[in-house]
Specification:
Distance between the termini: 64 Å
Number of domains: 2
Radius of gyration: 23 Å
Structural class: alpha+beta
Strand content: 25-35%
Order of helices and strands: HHEEEHHEHEHEEEEEE
Number of strands: 11
Length: 286
């Protein structure tokens, strides 16, 4: 019986599978990116070359004029898997004897929360830095009376950039996201328009979405800090591509004591591939 517990608890493949599943399924930003190139990575330092799609020119047709063929020259982008995090701890034999499935899940949850918090902040920073200049609104003071109109302006930026269609949805078929810290969300809740916003039930809620407002799915993140204002990111999942992988999970027998060392390596990277699918602003509280 003890042997079964040990094997179930410390089989590296099991830890890797559980940890990656939890990390992938958790966090605000993960629903705001695409993972189109994730299958290309295996280790830290890997690079993925992404062929961006350029614009296609439409010409006026004339039967007496030869058709002009456009050479497609989309930019080649490079996604670098340059972020790496590790976790490592020791588990004593007596703990393994008493272990069960809940024991394993508790430790994976601990690792998950730490990794996800760092990953969310990283993706938010990538998005803030990569938005197209036409979609950067600058700094503006917000109040309950003005917040709705300012959010509509951000939505309009994305619509003008063709990041969202006439139906108000992105190419992924979802409403654009708007990520707000608790302080700004409190202002939104005090606005008159919020009284008529749609609060989503548990059965229909998208990951991290707490309400629909000004055409956006509103998501709350405590990773958005106040540094001369709150950096606000909006957009669709087409804007940022993201790739992650747990490349190693190992258990090593402690040669001096009755126990095992457990360690893992988690790598990831992101790239803004469509800057016009992102919009940014800096909100200050009046």
């Amino acid at each position: 019986m003890v042997t079964t517990v040990k094997e179930g608890l410390f089989r590296p493949q099991l830890w890797s599978k559980l940890l990656l599943k939890d990390i992938m399924d958790y966090g605000v930003m993960i629903d705001c990116v695409n993972r189109n190139w994730e299958g290309e990575i295996k280790n830290q330092g890997d690079t993925v070359h992404i062929q961006a799609i350029g614009d296609v020119t439409v010409n006026t047709h004339d039967d007496d004029t030869p058709i002009q063929y456009q050479e497609l020259n989309g930019e080649t982008l490079v996604l670098k898997v340059d972020q790496a995090k590790n976790f490592a701890f020791v588990v004593k034999d007596i703990e393994k004897v008493q272990a069960n499935v809940e024991y394993l899940q508790k430790y994976t949850n601990k690792a998950k929360k730490q990794v996800v918090n760092v990953k969310d902040a990283y993706l938010h920073t990538i998005g803030m830095a990569g938005a197209h200049t036409d979609n950067q609104m600058g700094t503006t003071a917000i109040t309950p009376e003005t917040i709705y109109g300012i959010c509509v302006d951000m939505f309009t930026k994305l619509a003008r950039a063709n990041a969202i269609g006439a139906d108000g949805l992105g190419e992924d078929g979802k409403r654009p996201f708007l990520i707000l810290p608790p302080e700004i969300l409190a202002v939104v809740r005090k606005s008159e328009e919020a009284k008529h916003a749609t609060t989503l039930g548990d059965q229909t809620i998208r990951k991290g979405t707490i309400m629909q407002y000004a055409g956006f799915d509103i998501k709350q993140s405590t990773n958005v800090k106040n540094s001369e204002g709150f950096g606000i990111l909006a957009g669709t999942s087409e804007g940022i591509t993201f790739a992650e992988q747990i490349t190693k999970v190992e258990s090593i027998k402690d040669k001096d004591y009755f126990g095992d060392f457990v360690r893992g390596l988690y790598v990831y990277g992101a790239k803004v591939v469509q800057p016009k699918c992102l919009a940014t602003a800096t909100f200050t509280l009046s």
